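Render this sequence as a predicted structure.
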Amino acid sequence: MEIVRRPINRFRRFCIEFGRTDVKTLGYCIALLMLLWSFVLWQVDNDRNRTIAGIVTANDKLALAFEDHTRQSLLRVDQTLRFIKNDFEANGTLTSSANRLIQSQINDLLINQSIVTDETGMPRTSALGGTNNLFGAPQFQAHIKTDSGKVFIGAPRKGVFSNKESIHISRRLNYPDGSFAGMVSVALNPDYFANFYQKMEMGTGHVVILTGLDGIIRASQHEGAVEPVSIELLFNSITKNQKGHYDSAAIQSGNPYYYSYRVLSDYPLVVQVGVSGEVALAEFQERRSIYVRGAFAVSSLILLYTALIIRGARKKRYSQARYRALVEQSFEALAVVDIETKEVVEVNHRFTEMLGYSLPEDSPLYVDRFDVDLERNEINTYAQLKTQRTLIPELRVCHHKNGVEVRTERAGSIINIDGREYYLVSMRDMTVERRRQVEMMHDAELARRVQRDLLPKLQESPLVDIRALYHPSNVVSGDSYHLEWRNKGTLLRGFLVDVSGHGLATAIQTASINSLLSENETAKLPLLGQVRRLNARAGKYFTDGAYAAMLGFELDLSLRELRYIGAGITQFYANGRKIETPGMFVGMWDEAEFIEGKITVAEGDSFCFLTDGFTDVLAKPEYVGFFSEKGSAFDADVNALEKLAKSGVLSDDGTGVCLKVKSLLLGERAGLV
């Protein structure tokens, strides 16, 4: 028992020597240090998570760009394979046009060799010539037994004819009775993909890998030393989601790597973009060191300050002069209220400026003279003070001494002065803030009206029925459209724009895009040139993480065709049928690639160009068959879109341009000049 009493007695002597207030001060010091270090650790963890999130976002964007480039490259080659396959199977032999196409492939940087074989593996025709038998080649063996109907993409290996490392892509050929007739194969140059990746200048520690779903790497490019990681994590992630990201550790050193991946929907390939954590987290490591050093410095200051408080508390617990200075220097109105009598015992000069009352001139001053409240609310207020010791900020209407109402934000807490509890009230004048909010709403309404007034208003045309849809989800919109008649009324050029985000900043960016589109009118460029010019100039108007999706189109009545270019808006509807429009976003990359598509136009055709506010909803299963059969009921379809926008189901701005071709007469004959 004596052993137990000794530390207890020592603690009692410690408490007597320092006093209860000093022990509390030490407790507060320890709590503050714990809070400080808890915050620092949270900040370090939060900073790391945000840094990794930024890495993942950057990798996702690069993966999206590389996926699009790879798909377009493979699609171009696959179109050649399909043409030759269809031509052979339709004619039962290799035609001269197919043979010329094979011979022309050799001048393509993407292609090392093109060849068509018979059922024994002997070449029917070859871009490089030669008579080597390909019966034992993997791309030939893949098609012998059955016709899977799919393209085969082999592992990289040295070509028999080209003697170059190549990725062989092939399709099976059939005789009219369905029997095996050989194959058409193209040997792709892996360096073509690696060179494209290299042009992106991703920086040290980055790696891009094009991997088959068989686990074999087709092409890769990296900057600096990159360590190999386990491929199992990639395929475990693919089984859960066709696009995403994962992190892994290097097999030898254990250094972290962060990867984003995207599986090509039409081909058994996956694009990976990765970066070494050692490189990507270098700046975070520096910031973490700053956080820790700063925390040590602040901790030292806290300990020093606590020691000074304890030393000063032995002479006098509270310094009235210091207290007065703090109160008077406050930017907020302060009042000390006796919590029992509700009498104001002290105010600062800011309180007098705000409400007109001063002490001792207006004493006795009670709270109900300037803060008129129902008795029930007053009881709740002081009950909350006694239990929680603080009052959360709330808006109050107070009365000035001259009777004028003053809107304030009130907060408070319990303080102890010489053993007696007081209510310290702090009030902030919200009159200016409220006026600023009203002005902001007025500015937003003005911006909304300006946005609508800037939308183009075209002259009615006897050739084309034009219907525009414009439904912002908020006061201002990030969507817009631009229309203009050209070539004396025979060509209608239009652009549909969807800028990411919401609010006034997005509205300004949308206006900037509209301004660039207006400037483009004088450039006299074709549609593809217009989009490229706009992409090159639009980036400076966007902040980090912002971009614009766009769809450009030209309805050429003289040539009877619709030309279109997708730039982030990935689809539109032609005669009620969805048309895919792949393309990169505007303003994200200076060297973005855009592809122009064409559709033959006939009288009675209808087209609907819509932003994602509409298309996201139309993609849902319950809206299958939304448009009329072949888009024949144009007015009904447009009215249905208007009704859909007003129903409240759109979660984003909904904008669209709908066209119906009424006549293909020339514009001059129709009276348009």
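Summary. Residues 213 and 276 are 23 Å apart (CA to CA). The mean pLDDT is 81.
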